[in-house]
User: Which sequence fits this backbone?
C-alpha cells in the first residue's frame, strides 16, 4: 500500500478537501503536523487546500496510471491562498511540481501592477489589511486573472483550463501532467512560506520520464498514439522567507520526446475516460444527490472529483461502487453528460448512457469493457451547422447546443431538441424524456466513455 504523505509546514491548522481519498472527507492537519492517507494503485483524486471557506491550490493524483506510473501535478486553476508542492517520495529534493513560493511571487507581481490592472482584477484578487495578496480567485473563470498569474508562475503549475475564445489552451499547462517513475508514496507539502520538499534545496526541474511502449487499444477503440509532453527544465528559483527574491529565468531545456503510452486496462470500480481532442481537457464527476425509481436528484454544484486528460489520452478513473451520477467536460453547463452507475443493485453491473438534456458541448460514446463489445452514443459534430435558435453559450463563452429540458436558467429549448432528433434519431442519446435509449452494461463495473472535442 502506498500513501499520500501530507505535510502542513505552516504555523496554523490547515484544512484540505480530499477528493477520491480519505473517504472523501475533509482533513485538517495541525500546525507543523503531518498526515498519511492510503492511496491504492488505480485510484485518482485531489488534495485541495481551503482558505476562508474557498478552495484554492490542489495536488492532483493518479496512482499507477500509464504503465504503472504515477501522475501528479499542482493546480491553481481554482485559486490559491498558500503554497503547495508535490513529488514522488525518493525524488531528489529539487525535483518537484508546483511553485514553492507562489503567494509571495503573486504578491510581488501584484504590487508592480498599474492601478488600471489592479482595478481590472478587483473581485478576483483579495488583500489583507496591509494591502498584500492573501488569496486569489479561480484563473479558469477569468482570463485577465489567468494572464496575471502567468506572469510569475507559468510553467510551474496548472493555471488555465480549456480554451479562452479561439485559444487552444497553454502548452505550459499540459506539461504539468508528465508521468513519474513507477508507483510510490506521494509527498505533498503545504506552507505559507517556502513549500519546497527541502527549503534549503533550490528547484531544479520536474521529475519526469519518457515512456517508450506500444499503445494497446482499449475495447471498441482503434489503435492510436498517445503523446505525453515532457516538461521543460526550470532554472533554480531563489528561496523566500518573508518575500520572494528575484527568480532566475529558465535555463537548459529538455528536448520534447513524443512517447507512445499504453492505454490502461479496464478495471472496476470506475471508468475508462478518453479525451478525443487535440488539447488537454478537464472532466468532472458528479454523484447524484439522491436516487429513486428511474429518477435522480442531479448534482450541479459539488463535484466528487475531476481529472485532467491529455490530448487523445485514455485514463482509468477509480470510483466507489456506490457512484451514481455523471461525467462531463468542464464544470459548466450546457454540457454533454455521460450518465452512469458503477454497480446496479439488481444485477451488479455498471450501466450507462449519453444525455443531451442539459445541453451538448460535443459528441460522446459509452462502451462496455467486459468483452461484450456493446456501445452507444454518437461521434458526429452536431453543433456545427445547428440553427441559431438551437444554440447557447457556457458562462466561459463556448458555443454549445442549449438544454432541451431546461433548468434554473430558463425553459427547455425546442429548437435544440428538434435539431438533435433530426441529427441523431431517438436511440443514441437522451434528448427529451427518460426512455427509449438502449442501456450499456458492463459486468466488470467499468464502462468506457469517450468525449469528442472539436
Assistant:
Amino acid at each position: 500500500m502506498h500513501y499520500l504523505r501530507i505535510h502542513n509546514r505552516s504555523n496554523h491548522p490547515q484544512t484540505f478537501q480530499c477528493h477520491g481519498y480519505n473517504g472523501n472527507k475533509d482533513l485538517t492537519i495541525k500546525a507543523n503536523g503531518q498526515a498519511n492517507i492510503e492511496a491504492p494503485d488505480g485510484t485518482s483524486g485531489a488534495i485541495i487546500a481551503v482558505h476562508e471557506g474557498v478552495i484554492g491550490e490542489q495536488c492532483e493524483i493518479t496512482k499507477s496510471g500509464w504503465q504503472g506510473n504515477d501522475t501528479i501535478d499542482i493546480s491553481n486553476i481554482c485559486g490559491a491562498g498558500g503554497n503547495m508542492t508535490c513529488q514522488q517520495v525518493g525524488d531528489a529534493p529539487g525535483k518537484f511540481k508546483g511553485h514553492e513560493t507562489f503567494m509571495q511571487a503573486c504578491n510581488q507581481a501584484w504590487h508592480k501592477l498599474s492601478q488600471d490592472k489592479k482595478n481590472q482584477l478587483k473581485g478576483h484578487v483579495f488583500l489583507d489589511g496591509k494591502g498584500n495578496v492573501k488569496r486569489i480567485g479561480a484563473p479558469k473563470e477569468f482570463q485577465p486573472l489567468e494572464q496575471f498569474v502567468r506572469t510569475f508562475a507559468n510553467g510551474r503549475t496548472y493555471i488555465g483550463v480549456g480554451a479562452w475564445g479561439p485559444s487552444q489552451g497553454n502548452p505550459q499547462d499540459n506539461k504539468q501532467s508528465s508521468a513519474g517513475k513507477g508507483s510510490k508514496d506521494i509527498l505533498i507539502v503545504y506552507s505559507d512560506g517556502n513549500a519546497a520538499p527541502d527549503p534549503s534545496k533550490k528547484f531544479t526541474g520536474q521529475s519526469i520520464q519518457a515512456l517508450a511502449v506500444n499503445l494497446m487499444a482499449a475495447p471498441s477503440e482503434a489503435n492510436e498514439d498517445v503523446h505525453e509532453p515532457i516538461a521543460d527544465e526550470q532554472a533554480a528559483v531563489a528561496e523566500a522567507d518573508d518575500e520572494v527574491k528575484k527568480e532566475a529565468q529558465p535555463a537548459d531545456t529538455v528536448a520534447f520526446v513524443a512517447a507512445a503510452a499504453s492505454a490502461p486496462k479496464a478495471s472496476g470500480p470506475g471508468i475508462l475516460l478518453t479525451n478525443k481532442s487535440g488539447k488537454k481537457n478537464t472532466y468532472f464527476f458528479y454523484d447524484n444527490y439522491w436516487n429513486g425509481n428511474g429518477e435522480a436528484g442531479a448534482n450541479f454544484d459539488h463535484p466528487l472529483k475531476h481529472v485532467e486528460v491529455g490530448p487523445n489520452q485514455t485514463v482509468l478513473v477509480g470510483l466507489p461502487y456506490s457512484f451514481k451520477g455523471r461525467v462531463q467536460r468542464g464544470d459548466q453547463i450546457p454540457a454533454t453528460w455521460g450518465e452512469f452507475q458503477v454497480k446496479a443493485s439488481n444485477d451488479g453491473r455498471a450501466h450507462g448512457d449519453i444525455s443531451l438534456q442539459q445541453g451538448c458541448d460535443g459528441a460522446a460514446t459509452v462502451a462496455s469493457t467486459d468483452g461484450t463489445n456493446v456501445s452507444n452514443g454518437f461521434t458526429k459534430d452536431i453543433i456545427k451547422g445547428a440553427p441559431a435558435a438551437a444554440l447557447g453559450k457556457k458562462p466561459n463563452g463556448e458555443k454549445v447546443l442549449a438544454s432541451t429540458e431546461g433548468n434554473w436558467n430558463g425553459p427547455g429549448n425546442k429548437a435544440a431538441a428538434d435539431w438533435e432528433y433530426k441529427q441523431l434519431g431517438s436511440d443514441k442519446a437522451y434528448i427529451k424524456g427518460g426512455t427509449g435509449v438502449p442501456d450499456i452494461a458492463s459486468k466488470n463495473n467499468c464502462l468506457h466513455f469517450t468525449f469528442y472535442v472539436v
Q: What stands out?
A: The chain has two domains: 3-191, 270-452. The two ends are 40 Å apart (CA to CA). The CA atoms of residues 154 and 420 lie 41 Å apart.
